[in-house]
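Researcher: Structure for this, please.
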Amino acid sequence: MFERLRVWSHVSGKNIGFVNLDIAEEYYFLREIIIDFGPDAIIHFAEQRAAPYSMKSERQKRYTVNNNLNATHNVLCAIVDSGLDIHLIHLGTTGVYGYESHGKLIPEGYLHVKVEDQETGKIFESEILHPMYPGSIYHLTKTQDQMFFYYYNKNDGVRVTDLHQGIVWGTDTADTRLDERLINRFDYDGDYGTVLNRFLAQAAIGYPLTVHGTGGQTCAFIHIQDTVKCISLALENPPEKNSRVRIMNQVAETKRVRDLAKIVSELTGATIDYVENPRLEAEENELQMENSNLRNLGFEPITLDKSLMLDIHDITTKYRDRIDTSKIPCKSKWRRA
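Model: Predicted structure, token format:
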């Protein structure tokens, strides 16, 4: 971290302050920093971020729950405790909706419902949080985050933007390209590697692309540069005071995993290997998601582009000596034998 901060200061002429603390454990230190700094907004990324890692064993399950829920709750509690009007921007996941097919466009967080009073016949209309279908312990913590946000928004008026993000691909942004030492981490392994980055790393070393099950799972994707754009848009356009939690589906497009593998195979010549699916999920599903909130703020997404994929392939090829093939297979099982 300190090397990256030093390099960034050199290439940009700007300094970023850094404090090393565990916000899931050091609540009063966190509150003191918030009061002293007085931020207009807090961008909350401080959670264990991988579904496979959260399913490795009871140790990782317990760590994911303890870390993620305590971190989110401590941030919210400290905002209220500070007495400041702070806009909280949280990086969530589209995985809170689940990945089962229901043939409808998934709305941005809220579902319009009508309930009939059995005695009077009157129709009660409301908007509720979209039903949650977590597919792992990691996703379970993200659904619980939503309830934390709902409560602190309702009870204390905390302004919250929850970005339900798709699977991130790519490695560079305009800023990280300024110096090689600023390149982002690139996960290719079975615990943390997102599917497209994993495929491109596998192709770089001649390792078969590992498609879980039939590859019929449809997933939402977003380029890492668009992740930065969306956070910026959320930051520059905070929700009004006393408005409900704002939920935005931070996605660019959806693709089936096997179709993605075919694209990478055609680009690189890599072979495809269909392996046992370690997850409990539908073998085939459709996924359509609304994302008008960000588009209305000017978001024009980068879609899966072959030239960009080749750029990533070049980077993975350059650093392929760092790849440990023993880390590639996903060894987490959603259900014990």
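Researcher: Any notable elements?
Model: The radius of gyration is 21 Å. The chain has one domain: 2-327.
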